[in-house]
Design goal:
about 20% strand; alpha+beta; about 260 residues; two-stranded antiparallel sheet; 7-stranded mixed beta sheet; 9 helices; Glutaredoxin
């Protein structure tokens, strides 16, 4: 393949990449995460922590804060997500309580402080350094406040029976309550990513994410309650790319033959 053909192929891939990943693939009322980077949570979000203390969420944010939205009786991705977070916290060299804090918030209004306290006892045991007593807090709240928080951070859930279908992500906030980053995952987070998101939040800098790519390449499986690779969509894209590359090559070859014949 000639150098010009390779350039044409590269250009084709680039155009399709931009088209695929810049065009929204979900309506705003569907399940998923809709990033609200650089937006601030409001000062009217009052939740109750595991000790029955009422807390204004924004006023309690005085350092980079990792917001974890789960529900405590979740049979699906919530436990692996919290385990993955705890593992990243344990392996990271940033210190809980000094460099950052974690707020775990249940989006089920039926869950109450005793359950939050039980969950805190379970997961804080996995982190052996830092102030887990005061800096990893577990909250519950009423339906109106929960809905307001979910809307502000772009976290869309759907209730089916007694369970929820929901995405998995960590949301990082600056000390001023500004949304600076979304870290996607359900079982594993890199300690380096955790550290960098905290450092950026401390400086008030927001970071790009691969949200659009995730939406394109992955689909949420309601039965398995997890994201799965969308093989059909990806295969179709690859076939389309190859077809366009072949077409571009054929057009270029035909034009070159015409130039040769005219000469």
């Amino acid at each position: 393949m000639s150098l010009l053909a390779i350039r044409r192929l590269t250009l084709t891939f680039t155009i399709l990449y931009v088209f695929c990943f810049m065009v929204p693939v979900q309506a705003a009322d569907e399940l998923g995460i809709y990033e609200h980077l650089d937006e601030y949570i409001t000062d009217d979000l009052i939740f109750t922590d595991e000790l029955y203390q009422e807390v204004n969420l924004k006023e309690a944010i005085n350092k980079p804060t990792i917001l974890v939205l789960v529900y405590y009786e979740c049979p699906g991705i919530c436990s692996p997500l919290l385990n993955g977070l705890a593992d990243a916290m344990e392996k990271s060299d940033i210190v809980l309580g000094e460099d950052y804090q974690v707020f775990t918030v249940s989006f089920s209004h039926t869950e109450k402080p005793p359950l939050a306290k039980k969950k805190k006892s379970t997961y804080t045991k996995l982190v052996t350094h830092g102030d887990t007593d005061n800096s990893w807090r577990f909250f519950t709240g009423d339906s109106t406040t929960i809905s307001r928080l979910l809307d502000q951070v772009g976290f869309k859930v759907k209730k089916e029976g007694k369970e929820y279908i929901h995405p998995g992500s960590l949301i990082v906030l600056s000390p001023e309550g500004k949304i600076t980053r979304y870290l996607y995952g359900s079982t594993y987070f890199l300690p380096f990513d955790l550290k960098m998101s905290v450092v950026e939040a401390a400086a008030g800098r927001s970071g790009p994410t691969i949200n659009k790519m995730l939406k394109y390449c992955f689909s949420y499986d309601p039965e398995g309650k997890k994201y799965v690779l969308n093989v059909t969509k990806i295969s179709g894209t690859i076939i389309l790319l190859l077809a366009l590359a072949f077409l571009s090559s054929m057009i270029f070859s035909k034009r070159r033959k015409n130039k040769v014949s005219k000469a």
